[in-house]
Amino acid sequence: xxxxxxxxxxxxxxxxxxxxxxxxxxxxxxxxxxxxxxxxxxxxxxxxxxxxxxxxxxxxxxxxxxxxxxxxxxxxxxxxxxxxxxxxxxxxxxxxxxxxxxxxxxxxxxxxxxxxxxxxxxxxxxxxxxxxxxxxxxxxxxxxxxxxxxxxxxxxxxxxxxxxxx
Amino acid sequence: xxxxxxxxxxxxxxxxxxxxxxxxxxxxxxxxxxxxxxxxxxxxxxxxxxxxxxxxxxxxxxxxxxxxxxxxxxxxxxxxxxxxxxxxxxxxxxxxxxxxxxxxxxxxxxxxxxxxxxxxxxxxxxxxxxxxxxxxxxxxxxxxxxxxxxxxxxxxxxxxxxxxxxxxxxxxxxxxxxxxxxxxxxxxxxxxxxxxxxxxxxxxxxxxxxxxxxxxxxxxxxxxxxxxxxxx
Lengths: 166, 232
Fold this sequence. Notes:
The complex is a heterodimer. Chain A is mainly α. Helices cover 75% and strands 0% of the residues of chain A. Chain A contains nine helices and no strands. Chain A is globular and about 50 Å long. The N and C termini of chain B lie far apart (54 Å). In chain B, a hairpin with a 2-residue loop joins strand 2 (188-194) and strand 3 (197-202). Chain B has two domains: 2-65, no CATH class; 109-135 and 161-232, 2-Layer Sandwich (Alpha-Beta Plaits), CATH 3.30.70. Chain B has a four-stranded antiparallel sheet, sandwiched between helices. Chain B is α+β, with helices and mostly antiparallel strands. The chains are: A mainly alpha, B alpha+beta. At the A-B interface, helix 1, helix 2, helix 6, helix 7 and helix 9 of A face helix 2, helix 4, helix 5 and helix 6 of B.
């Protein structure tokens, strides 16, 4: 278990943190995820990668944690997450730092869009693996990422960043 | 009606277009990767979109890398909970380890090749470092840990400033000799590696933000580099 934890806990934590946006909750999540793994070790069928299995459990636990919180509280938090610290996207653009604006806008995506962007780009999951983690058909995975990227482009455009797409 | 259909068609993403993010992440199967490559070569519009996607890909990795790691509290909590669990049959865990081993057996040849290459590279680097340390220490018999008065005593407001680190992903067909040459020419060393990404450290001195930016631009221009992004 220590080896498994050592190998995967940082990525599990980061995936959970991007969903729940609260370090304390994300830390609690990883304890719960690995405890579940300990309890359900016999159920792991080895059909998918261990990391895919772990991320699917993390996602389920993160969504349960989010459901326990009020919607209004979440909306406030989402707004704060975009506006907090340093510069807003507009200021970042005046500094010609598109990268910084991109990161801000990535944070401003909805939870549904954030998770798919992270799973594909950061966790390097294939179409099939994302479908397994999120529990949606493979075609929906592809279109959801496409629209997440479109939303990202809209946020960037609103912040004054034109990238030539769409 | 015709105009409406055309507009709808324009809004619908094409099949290849939807695969671009996975191509950037290197997670497509060989057949799809070839289809995307061919489409990129003949469609400049698609190639422009792919450049935008590579930017998103790099920044998503950069953003996630800044999130840090959980504190030791999470691990303590987990192992305290495991200790409190009722005694169990050992078969379940051994079954997990068997399956995890099975998973490694099923890794793609590309991933296995990378892992093996990295292992070999680390061994070569390690041998080099040990050799260098032995050569350097040969002349002196012992050295005290006292303060050297020949060096100026300086300090920075932020304490020790570390040399820059960059997450680098090499193209799938990069040879070990090419990677070694790149490491030599940039005076870089591999700090760690995970999932096909290498964390490289450059030199032993801190660099300004502009220097780091130009270093990353230069790296991105290297033939064998697929992606370079700043990392703590």
